[in-house]
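Structure in, sequence out. Go:
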C-alpha cells in the first residue's frame, strides 16, 4: 500500500516537473526532463525520496546575476567553454552555420553580461511568463495532491487495520 503511494508520488512529481520545464520554455533538447532520477530510501523511522537531474537545472531554476556570467570580453583567452556552450545552444535554437551560431553566442553573452540570465528576450520562449523557479512551482503545485495521497493511504491503512480485528 505504501509502496504504491510512493510510486504514485514519484510519477506525479516527474510529470509536474516536466510540465513546468515546458511552460517556462526549458525544453529545447528535452535532456533535462529525461535526466530526472528518483530514489526511495527506507529508513528506520520513515523514508526519503531523492530526485536528481542534470546540474544545469539548478542554474536555470535560480537564474544567474549579470556579475556572475562567466564572460570577460577582451580577456585575450583563445577559447571559452561558456561561448562553446552558447554556440551549441544557438545552433540548436536558431540553426544556421557554425559562424552564425558563434555570432549569436557572442550576442547572447554580451546581453547576459548586462542583464544576467534569464535575459529579457528569453521570455519569448515562456508560455507562463516565467523563466526561473520551475522547481518551486513544481513543489507548490503538487503539494496538495501529495497530501491527499498520503491522507488516503493512512485512511486506508487504518481502515484495513480495523477490519482485520
Amino acid at each position: 500500500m505504501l509502496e504504491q503511494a510512493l510510486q504514485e508520488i514519484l510519477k506525479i512529481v516527474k510529470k509536474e516537473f516536466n510540465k513546468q520545464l515546458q511552460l517556462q520554455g526549458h525544453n529545447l533538447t528535452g535532456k533535462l526532463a529525461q535526466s530526472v532520477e528518483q530514489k526511495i530510501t527506507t529508513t528506520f523511522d520513515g523514508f526519503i525520496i531523492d530526485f536528481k537531474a542534470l546540474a544545469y537545472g539548478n542554474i536555470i531554476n535560480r537564474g544567474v546575476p549579470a556579475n556572475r556570467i562567466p564572460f570577460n570580453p577582451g580577456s585575450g583567452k583563445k577559447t571559452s567553454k561558456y561561448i562553446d556552450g552558447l554556440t551549441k545552444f544557438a545552433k540548436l535554437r536558431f540553426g544556421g552555420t557554425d559562424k552564425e551560431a558563434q555570432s549569436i553566442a557572442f550576442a547572447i553573452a554580451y546581453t547576459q553580461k548586462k542583464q544576467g540570465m534569464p535575459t529579457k528576450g528569453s521570455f519569448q520562449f515562456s508560455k507562463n511568463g516565467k523563466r526561473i523557479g520551475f522547481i518551486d512551482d513544481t513543489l507548490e503545485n503538487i503539494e496538495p495532491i501529495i497530501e491527499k495521497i498520503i491522507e488516503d493511504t493512512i485512511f486506508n491503512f487504518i481502515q484495513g487495520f480495523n477490519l482485520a480485528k
